[in-house]
Amino acid sequence: MYNLEKGKPIEITINGKSDSTLTSGAERIYIEYDFIIEYMGEVNKVNFVALSNVGTERTIPTLIDKKIDLRKILY
Question: What is the pTM of this model?
């Protein structure tokens, strides 16, 4: 679909529908997801730490290199 490159985030949009159970009479639910994926390099080692010890937060990139729309008509 796309080759990730360092420093070039992509955005992927997908959708779907959910029917809980046909016998319950619940309404159909339509869902849309939007993901931003950024390649940040290779991982050689992983250290698991407590969430309280994580001091860095990532910001959502504003300059998206490519947008991939995988939504389909749901009716």
Answer: 0.66
- Residue ranges per domain, the chain? 10-69
Which value, to the nearest 10 degrees, does the dihedral of the CA atoms of residues 37, 67, 64, 47 take? Answer: 0
Q: What is the pLDDT of residue 33?
A: 94
Among 14, 71, 56, 54, which residue's Cα sits nearest to residue 37? 14
Q: Count of CB atoms within 10 A of residue 70's CB?
A: 10
The Cα 25–Cα 17 span in angstroms is: 15
* Tokens found for residue 3: 């080759």
What's the burial of 32, exposed, middle or buried (CB within 10 Å: 0-12/13-18/19+)? exposed
